[in-house]
Task: structure prediction
Amino acid sequence: MNEVRVGVIGCGGMGQSHMGIFKDLPRLKFTAASDSMSANLDKVVTTYGVKGFSDGHELIKSGLCDAIIIATPHYFHPEYAVAALQQGLHVLTEKPVSVNASAARRVNDAAAKRPDLKYAAMFQMRTVSRWKKVHQIVASGQLGEMRRFHWTATGWFRTQAYYGSGSWRATWAGEGGGILANQCPHNLDLVYWITGMPKRIHAHLKLGRYHDIEVEDDVIAYFEYPNGATGLFVTSTGEFPGSDYFEIAGDRGKLTFTHDGKIDLTLTDGSIAEFCKTSPGAWSSPTSSRMTIEPPAGGGGHKDVWLNFIAAILDGTPLVTPGVEGLHSVEISNAMILSGLTGKTVDLPTNHAEFDDLLRGLIRKSKKSTTLPPGL
Result:
């Protein structure tokens, strides 16, 4: 095989965004699309001359594709991913990989049964130069063992009109949450990718604090890690101007950066913990060096994930954004919601049955829709 025949499931804004970059992707052939809304599907079929299907499962079984991209509403991501893997297709799914961790686990189990297939997630922030550099610094051990991280990610301001632009938006039945399910899957994936998985989370969240919505639009969460490190994650869609401030402190220094992309790095000459224990001086401080790193501009985004996905299929290149790792950001999100709505500290991995019961209850109480979506 010297090219990958790709089908798009979901022809709304996100699906059409992917179609727009297909022309820039060597070795990709766009062959089929599906959408339950005929207006969306007709537009794509006319524009690109591909085969159209009103049902994504028919596209999967058509024999026209080697791989699919899933760009549907969240709850349908795992359903189509499992069906495609069982049919022998490679899968690239939009974020989040699922609403609930139990569904993400089902997809991972299906992927494990087909190790010959590639399963990737659209976590394009992993390809952005500044985040790649942060990950490289932390993974290299330059900062030493992590002691604390803090991320204020409040640059997600949204109007009431935004939430009113679609009946599925900001509903438990449509999205499975608010800012954690829609805006923050990338942030939560980076938290996992850079700091690892916490063992415990306690969160405070507000449902409709700034908007007339039924889901969360304001979150503060406290993380605990197996080594005793802690973390603080703050996010909101009601603040303007928002902030994007990331800081991680280790036993050998500290790294910070803000939205300007410049990384401020301070490294000590040895272990801070050891210096604290052994220094004879009451007011002594470790010797250190400070530097500012400006990662290369440009690069990163959907195109880079696509190029990697195609290379993984055709050349055996390792995936940059493995879909199985999408479970971790869903676990973190589920833990925040479970903690925030019950008032208790939640251990990870979460109790999947408990979270699913909570979500079903929220949907049944909803004024928007009481119909349970797929996977619940």
Residues 126 and 132 are 6 Å apart (CA to CA). The two ends are 38 Å apart (CA to CA).
